Amino acid sequence: MPSKVRIALDAMGGDVGAPVVIPGAAISLGRHPETEFLLVGDRARIEPELDRHPKLKAASRIVHTDVAVSMEDKPSQALRRGRKTSSMWLAIDAVKKGEADVAISAGNTGALMAMARFHLRTLPGIDRPAIAGIWPTMRGESVVLDLGATIGGDAHHVVSLAVMGAAMASVLFSKPRPTVGLLNIGTEEIKGHEEIREAGEILRAMNLPGLDYIGFVEGDGIGKGLADVIVTEGFSGNIALKAAEGTARQMAELLRNEMQRSWMSKLGYLFARGAFQALRNKMDPNKSNGGMFLGLRGVVVKSHGGINAEGFAYAIDVGYEMVKFDLLNKINQMLNRDGGGLSSVQPAPEDVS
Amino acid sequence: MPSKVRIALDAMGGDVGAPVVIPGAAISLGRHPETEFLLVGDRARIEPELDRHPKLKAASRIVHTDVAVSMEDKPSQALRRGRKTSSMWLAIDAVKKGEADVAISAGNTGALMAMARFHLRTLPGIDRPAIAGIWPTMRGESVVLDLGATIGGDAHHVVSLAVMGAAMASVLFSKPRPTVGLLNIGTEEIKGHEEIREAGEILRAMNLPGLDYIGFVEGDGIGKGLADVIVTEGFSGNIALKAAEGTARQMAELLRNEMQRSWMSKLGYLFARGAFQALRNKMDPNKSNGGMFLGLRGVVVKSHGGINAEGFAYAIDVGYEMVKFDLLNKINQMLNRDGGGLSSVQPAPEDVS
């Protein structure tokens, strides 16, 4: 466990850049004083922000560049234009060179994934990376992956998602053996895609010490908190996340509109303000901010682009915990110890040895 | 347009059966007096319920059977055991024989789809049926399909979903040319599965008179009401629906818990009760009850199993409207006029004529 956690921040990422990134870093530093920051971006925009946070200034070093990856760039464009020069690339580069333990950006997701994958490469045994998110549930929080890094994939890809998600959940929730469910459209064994059924059989057969496979979970089981880790390929994971976010926003807006409609309900709102605030806190997307890139030889966290400083601080917190509690080694251990078997264990072995 | 709408009800379907189905029919009859009912199920359980609703009794005929499909039966079991004898089969059989215009059941979804497909067969030009639902949005309601009848499928399957969904939306929302979006994980053309991109190109190339194709829609676009019809294959459609339902339930429960926590918030609840009721009404799953089976040579509606009489009445209403406004002919017309081109129009034609 390293004594200091060294965090590289893309200070030009997101809708706002430095005015959100720097105050966010200051908030997170307040919670974890044993942090050092590498602030990558335009010095002229970083310094005025930094002057308002002397403690952060003392714990930070600026890496200057004025090249930013735009939110509109396609991944290939970003790689072509921003490689070796952009704030996003240089933050990842600091991880690659061992100058930082984690890189965090609120920039263009596709570009960040493309650069991270290109520069850091995937872990041994992992073909395709994943994005994992933290989902608020009735029981607390769950890790959900893949949220859109990789579309499709065979049973072994799904199994590797389960292993990586379990490693992340064990760090986040301090559970040595988190429960893992596979997202499916029915809980009966006969339903769903072939690769999900096969992944379920592999997980059951392997009976890994680092995760407790509980079977299939339907879409409404995520919010119920039926498992610490919910695994699905990137297309359906992204659809589930966005559909849930959309519904939460829709209900909040409907409630707000209804509360404005009469003096009675306005009065009610005044009395119940604390309850509404508590609901907002529990469903606050800022608080579950921080998409982990999993499967790379380095820790990279993606923050929402349209987040405020408090939300960005949560993304930093996630990165901090992943480093402090050694996520990469945990994943590697599981992949090597348990995952050494990933390719050898088959649901129906046919090879003659 | 038929003068009477003849509705066959599976009076043994759902968690409760006749005690929900019969009062539900009575409610719907109150809204549409020009309805006739065929009540299929155990006469001994139907008659006592019917005695409480003399108007319904006058508009109904009982088809007796004491064979029910269980909620736990797999589709193949249900077909084997319940064919020609079960209330579910006989309700579908009434449609097949032309004795009813629509069959409605709150029973086992997989069994209902298997029986309907087996007995009614699919429409010409349709290989695989779909389930369409009505989704409450910020703008009103949208039709979303497929909610889980068919997993996967090629671009032409997705296009046929768009055509059938548009026909349903034109009936439900009285719009001659409803807007149609394809569910995807990014709005840029480069993202998503190959078959979704190809379906988008076909829809754009065909420029059908019965639907207005607007492009890709992400998961949170459903609740925003970005299109009258949202199209996706059955796996992701089911995941989206369940994730959204789960989130709505989760928020409602959180809010209820928070409102109980202090006397201030309890008082607030009393004042704002009307607002909460309005929210509940808008997000009430009972009100969007009624999954349409599309692509069959007959109209079949699936009600939720755990619904109350009011909710079952909504499912009947949906069936009623589909018959009254001639959904089947609309779909057939679109498939023949427009869809005659479904197989001939290709995004990149290569045939030499």
TrEMBL record, chains A, B:
<dbReference type="Pfam" id="PF02504">
    <property type="entry name" value="FA_synthesis"/>
</dbReference>
<keyword id="KW-0963">Cytoplasm</keyword>
<keyword id="KW-0808">Transferase</keyword>
<dbReference type="InterPro" id="IPR003664">
    <property type="entry name" value="FA_synthesis"/>
</dbReference>
<keyword id="KW-0594">Phospholipid biosynthesis</keyword>
<dbReference type="GO" id="GO:0006633">
    <property type="term" value="P:fatty acid biosynthetic process"/>
</dbReference>
<dbReference type="GO" id="GO:0005737">
    <property type="term" value="C:cytoplasm"/>
</dbReference>
<dbReference type="GO" id="GO:0008654">
    <property type="term" value="P:phospholipid biosynthetic process"/>
</dbReference>
<protein>
    <recommendedName>
        <fullName>Phosphate acyltransferase</fullName>
        <ecNumber>2.3.1.274</ecNumber>
    </recommendedName>
</protein>
<keyword id="KW-0444">Lipid biosynthesis</keyword>
<keyword id="KW-0443">Lipid metabolism</keyword>
<dbReference type="InterPro" id="IPR012281">
    <property type="entry name" value="Phospholipid_synth_PlsX-like"/>
</dbReference>
<keyword id="KW-1208">Phospholipid metabolism</keyword>
<comment type="similarity">
    <text>Belongs to the PlsX family.</text>
</comment>
<comment type="pathway">
    <text>Lipid metabolism; phospholipid metabolism.</text>
</comment>
<dbReference type="GO" id="GO:0043811">
    <property type="term" value="F:phosphate:acyl-[acyl carrier protein] acyltransferase activity"/>
</dbReference>
<comment type="subunit">
    <text>Homodimer. Probably interacts with PlsY.</text>
</comment>
<keyword id="KW-0012">Acyltransferase</keyword>
<comment type="function">
    <text>Catalyzes the reversible formation of acyl-phosphate (acyl-PO(4)) from acyl-[acyl-carrier-protein] (acyl-ACP). This enzyme utilizes acyl-ACP as fatty acyl donor, but not acyl-CoA.</text>
</comment>
